[in-house]
């Protein structure tokens, strides 16, 4: 069993428990937003990332720091959840737990996640048109776009929905032509 699959196996019960609490209290959206805030805050600070993952820093110190950072910003349920993860020495799995929670929450809400890589930023109108098209393609009630600008695409965009990839980029078309010409 690989380390990644082992970490997924350990993270899943935490994500499921958090989703269960969120559903019972009817605050799935609030919890989802708070988890996004936690992810953004931690990912934007390399010092915080090091602190959280360092096993030499004590449990109480980590809990105090998380309390100071998040006490006024997130729901008490999420804060207590973070503190439990620190106490059980599972805080290093936080990103995997959040990712698993979001996957489960989006499934419950019939939300499709579409990763979109574009050569330039989309306007809101273009994003909405893409959302509408993806809803039709996937028969989903909701679509969440994860937009990334990638200038190496030259022009166009690539959409990844689960394991399916739709590549309309100029870079992708050039690769197809190269592959075709190499076969001849």
UniProtKB/TrEMBL annotation:
Superkingdom of origin: Eukaryota
Q: What coarse category fits the chief subcellular location reported for this protein?
A: membrane
Q: Which GO terms describe its molecular function?
A: proton-transporting ATP synthase activity, rotational mechanism
Location in or out of the cell:
Membrane
What span is annotated as the signal peptide, if there is one? Answer: none
Keyword ATP-binding tagged: no
Q: Which Pfam families match?
A: OSCP
Which protein is depicted?
Answer: ATP synthase CF1 subunit delta
Origin species:
Callithamnion tetricum
